[in-house]
Design goal:
Keywords: Hydrolase. One of its GO terms (molecular function) is hydrolase activity. The chain has a single domain, classed as Rossmann fold (3-Layer(aba) Sandwich). It is an alpha/beta fold. Helices cover 41% and strands 18% of the residues. Strand 1 and strand 2 form a beta hairpin.
Length: 277
């Protein structure tokens, strides 16, 4: 069940689950604090508490609390002050990468460790054509209809709908990705996609910048899917070359949705070692 926190910049939707050391999870594009992502059970099984906010423009968090990654990083500090953890482990996923990096760079005393999962950093940015398509598909008028059409398609032909999305999420043929996924992973991936909404958040995401990441002092683990079709590999390389205390792990996961891969076991093992160090 999500809640609303009242920060110095305005209301912020969030969810907290578990008990233990705090992990701040910054979900990626088209998701909110209640989105069914894959590593929640991993962190809970390790004895962590997850603090999961909806980023500006997603869920019930208004854009006004931080349209830029830098502004939202400052909002997160106000939010964390209200919850009282001195430091948090930060997980930045996909389009939330710039916010995670701004938080770790501007407020190093609040971040004990940083994990980036197929995260946008300062690498290759979308072309002008991609930006035009983003505005056409995810503007406030079109966005509800785009996702409603996908949900209708997903109910009528679930595997075909999943396959259609995988074409943009993997550099491998979609059929090849599907054959590697278990039936449960296929269903979990479809559930995530069917729950997706962009609100106004994704239009903010495409303008986010990560700032001067050489300021980051927290130990950092960068996880990159080898066959990610959504976030170019230059983003992982960009961060790995500029953060001092960093480890880059290129996972043989078949798509951007690394949680729903048979190689997720290896990813979780790598995170476990990193967290215990």
């Amino acid at each position: 069940m999500s809640q609303i926190a009242h920060t110095s910049r305005g209301p912020l939707e969030y969810r907290i689950v578990g008990q233990g050391s705090a992990v701040l999870v910054l979900n990626g594009g088209h998701t909110n604090c209640s989105s069914p992502l894959g590593h929640e059970s991993f962190f809970l099984d390790q004895g962590y508490q997850l603090i999961i906010p909806s980023r500006p423009g997603y869920g019930r968090t208004p854009s006004s609390v931080g349209k830029t990654a830098e502004a939202f990083a400052d909002t997160l500090v106000s939010f964390l002050d209200s919850l009282h953890p001195d430091q948090v482990i930060v997980v930045g996923i996909s389009a939330a990468g710039p916010t995670a990096l701004q938080l770790a760079g501007k407020h190093p005393d609040r971040v004990s460790k940083l994990i980036l999962q197929n995260a946008v950093t300062g690498g290759k940015f979308p072309t002008g054509l991609t930006r035009v398509f983003t505005y056409l598909a995810f503007n406030p008028i079109a966005e509800p209809w785009i996702w409603a059409a996908f949900r209708s398609y997903g109910r009528r032909a679930p595997l075909a709908a999943l396959k259609s999305m995988l074409r943009s999420l993997s550099s491998l043929p979609a059929d090849q990705v599907l054959t590697k996924m278990s039936p449960k992973q296929q269903q979990d991936a479809l559930n995530l996609l069917l729950a997706s909404r962009s609100g106004s958040g994704f239009l903010h995401d495409i303008h986010h910048r990560c700032g001067d990441i050489s300021r980051i002092t927290a130990p950092t683990l960068i996880i990159e899917s080898k066959y990610d079709g959504a976030v170019d590999s230059s983003h992982a390389t960009y961060a790995a070359e500029r953060i001092a205390n960093v480890e880059l792990f290129i996972a043989p996961a078949e798509s951007h949705l690394l949680w729903f891969s048979p190689h997720n076991v290896e990813i979780e093992a790598k995170m476990r070692v990193f967290l215990e160090a």
